[in-house]
Amino acid sequence: MTDWSAEEMPAMDDRRVVVTGANSGIGFEGTKAFARAGATVVMACRSTERGERAAGEIREAVPDATLDVRRCDLADLGSVREFAAGVRGTYDGLHVLCNNAGVMAVPRSETADGFETQLGVNHLGHFALTGHLLDRLVTGAGESRIVTQSSGAHEMGGVDFEDFHREDDYGKWEAYGQSKLANLLFAYELQRRLERAGIDGTESVACHPGYADTNLQYRGPEASGSRVRYGIMKVANTVFAQSATKGALPMLYAATAAGVEGGDYYGPGGFLGMRGPPEEQESNDASYDEADAERLWEVSEEVTGVTYDIEALAPRPA
Length: 318
Description:
Elements: E1 16-20, H1 25-36, E2 40-45, H2 48-61, E3 66-71, H3 77-90, E4 96-99, H4 117-139, E5 144-149, H5 172-196, E6 202-207, H6 216-224, H7 227-240, H8 244-247, H9 249-256, E7 265-268, E8 278-280, H10 290-304
Parallel strand pairs: 1-2, 1-4, 2-3, 4-5, 5-6, 6-7
Antiparallel strand pairs: 7-8
Helix pairs in contact: 3-4, 4-5, 5-10, 6-7
């Protein structure tokens, strides 16, 4: 594909979209594009104050935007559950879920539920959220897509089932790679389970933004108090990164473009996959390991307490 842009998104006037991390970076730009196409966008934000501020900025650019700002802290399963319950109470059907929010290369810490933070936010929080909302995506009117944001960093990751939360051996980049590989294992396994259940109106798709200029790169240096690393990241973002607007394109393509199929993976098609218009790509061999994906699924259900009953959502014979 060549030069696909957000202007090519179809009309979404009757579509409801949930975006995590919607108040900044790729989530913000994606929310703006969805709103411009006419969608109702539920902005899942850790801080509703920042979410409302972002919504105000979007409305300046898109005066008729339909935005619903709600608190969702992916580092707290109670918050995820409360958010999902509120969405379920308001909307009888959803059409797109963008599992977008994340943290990158931060010093080791733990979520409210005792998970290593990068794994907890990037994978386990989204695993729980998707499970809570899956029936609204599957049984709502029309087709739906679940888009999970990964990263090229998945290639340096491996899921350590013996030290799942990296309590014995923590490296911030290794932990980030594990979380991004987990995103892909989850996205592909979800698609396989939907297919086995005979559900063909909901597709699970993965994407990555390449190297985009967002706040994500600054969180690690800020958390560790390193001014040197912060400065290096700022220079790198200025020189090498594409804009967050362009970084959002693979997610938007995966969520809306014709011809997208469950199990696809999209990313920038330019230099080293870091920038450029979106194209279909392949992730590394480890991401397609079905045995690891099944084991990760089982562990994720166990530690989050969120069980997927996909068979119950399958269409019944006439």
